[in-house]
Design goal:
The chain is of the alpha/beta class and about 240 residues long. The chain has a single domain, classed as NAD(P)-binding Rossmann-like Domain (Rossmann fold, 3-Layer(aba) Sandwich). Helix content is about 40%, strand content about 15%. It has a seven-stranded parallel sheet, with helices on both faces. The radius of gyration is 18 Å and the shape is globular.
Length: about 240
Amino acid sequence: MKTIIITGAANGIGKGIAQQLATEGYKTILLDREEAQVKAVAEELENSSYYALDLQDEKSVTKTFHSIFKEHGTPYGLINNAGISKFTDFFELTLDGWNEVIQTNLTSIFLCSQLVAKEMKDTGGVILNMASTRAFMSEPDTEAYAASKGGIVAISHALARTLAPYHIRVNSIAPGWIETTAYEDLRDVDHDQHLAGRVGKPSDIARMCSFLLDERNDFLTAENFVVDGGMTRKMLYEH
């Protein structure tokens, strides 16, 4: 049974990924700073464990991952999904605010990937990093978030190059609008913004993760996969 570590697994996309992979027979290790929530998710799934973890704390990250390796062995996959989206007026954005987003969204990927890759060097494996279409397009006052997501795309192809000799594949996924709470409250105009005719769901991203984890798809590495229902390809003109 292959083991997959998933960060930010207490809710939203991370929870959806955990649920999908559990149905496919993977053993899942769920990480999140919201202990009660991630515990509840793990208890719903077969062959699932959880660890409470603040990804901004390097010592805690190192300690937790070493505990995972000791208790569960070398993982087959790591899904770096955790992230925060704080949009702040650019003229009011502080360095602390900037660092919080960068550390949580981007630096955590460096830390977790390095720890896991050291374990995978003899076995190979898969690392998936959750970017965003905001790496390529923006709204006002999203500087820290956009920078973190653009960095995720870049570090993913860099890691893919570095880790290729160890048969470790690395890809990033860039979700578009994925509604994680009240899907039934969405309006027609929300769905109509997408060429697919609907807003995305966590299950859309979960299935992409499943596809990229599959050993039969070992020709796919160093790529970013946009999963957005065609939204970012739609020309926006006023008529």
